[in-house]
Amino acid sequence: MKNSKEKIFIGKARGPINIALIKYWGKEDEELIIPLNNSISLTLDTNTFYTETKVTIELSDNKNNDSSLQNNITLTINGKPSNVTKRIRNIFKKFFSFDIPICKELASTILNIKIESINTFPIASGCASSASSMAALVLAITSALKLENILPKKELTKIARLGSGSACRSILGGICEWVKGTGDCSYAEQLYDNNYWNLGVKLIIVNQKEKDVSSSVGMKITKETSELFKYRINYVVSKNLEALKKNLKEKDFNNFAEIVIKDSNNFHACCRDSYPSINYLNEESDFIMKGIMILNKLKGNNICAYSFDAGSNAFLIYEMNNKNIIDNFFNYIFDFDHTEISDLFKNIQIENNENNINEINKLKERRPLKEKILNQIDFILGEGTKIIYE
Ligand code: PMV
Prior knowledge:
With about 400 residues, the chain is an alpha+beta fold. The protein has two domains: about 5-195, Ribosomal Protein S5, domain 2, CATH 3.30.230; about 200-380, CATH 3.30.70.890. About 40% of the residues lie in helices and about 25% in strands. It contains twelve helices and 16 strands. It has helices at about 85-95, 100-105, 130-145, 155-165, 165-170, 215-225, 225-250, 255-275, 285-300, 325-335, 340-350, 355-365; strands at about 10-15, 20, 25-30, 35, 40-45, 50-60, 75, 80, 110-120, 175-180, 185-190, 200-205, 305, 315-320, 375-380, 385. The strands form four sheets. The chain has a six-stranded mixed β-sheet, covered by helices on one side. α3 (about 130-145) packs across α4 and α10 runs antiparallel to α11 (about 340-350). Residues about 65-70 have low confidence and may be disordered. The structure holds (3R)-3-hydroxy-3-methyl-5-(phosphonooxy)pentanoic acid (PMV). The site of (3R)-3-hydroxy-3-methyl-5-(phosphonooxy)pentanoic acid has 14 residues, from α3 and α6.
């Protein structure tokens, strides 16, 4: 590389969170992050929740290629010197392994790498922060090295997978499937774009604390100890995948919601069945699940699904034309507004009879304290991780 010392490569990207409808839980290969099963998710918009990452890759003057440089890379994350974690190193190593001039040049050079990253949401609380941050990192490096027109999206999903499995799905927009594949060929693909189905997602935050058991550790324990999990992998997931794909194709929300709810339940049951038992949910999560089951029952068909990743925060999924009903219902049962129950029934189009009144009032009596509902964020489907050009 001529005049290589002057070279500095900068790239920036914004990555979204995604919510899994059919969960990824358990690795076939820990090193390559190959999952035990395919998974399907919704990529959410980046209006409020996202990770924005800037990567600066500089050629170092330091000729002292000792082991502290960890494979020729010194890294600072948000201004602090950092050990290059194995996963981040794997991402860079993958980029530098391509048979592309800039990648080959950087592979043999000592580098200073600076990663500056902001998250707009609570980290490690089941809000998929690793997915958005690893997806943003991959696109930021892609942009820094000007590879966006060279590396296909599928390749980028494979690289993001090395950072955090579910990150591969955050690269793409709309409704995505992570295809288990074999060896290095485990990738995400888009099933439908973000305009295919007018779905909304409401995230109800009931816990901002870091989870006790990380997803990596949790899935290892479950795989090693849960009998129920064997049934999930051998039977439940393939059945749910097939049914969900059919529901997506037919835009059949009633059956779609049933599968999404059941897959979330099954995943959390496997966590509970692990030894030691893992519980990502809390009382507030339980209350929200009950609320949705009652709403769907009173409506006579499923208009809302819930799903919980490895955390107690609830993701509610609905068709946008039903958003008002879901808003009104939850505002009432959380006691956020003081509508009369007769008005609620009018608003959510449910018959105003004694049975229905009793059912809703019984539920409302068990509502969590208002301060336990920390925040509610509304999403629509998004377009995936985007490079930011400045
Ligand atoms: O990608 P990880 O290692 O953060 O694991 C994600 C696991 C779940 O969020 C629970 C499920 C999923 O498919 O996203």
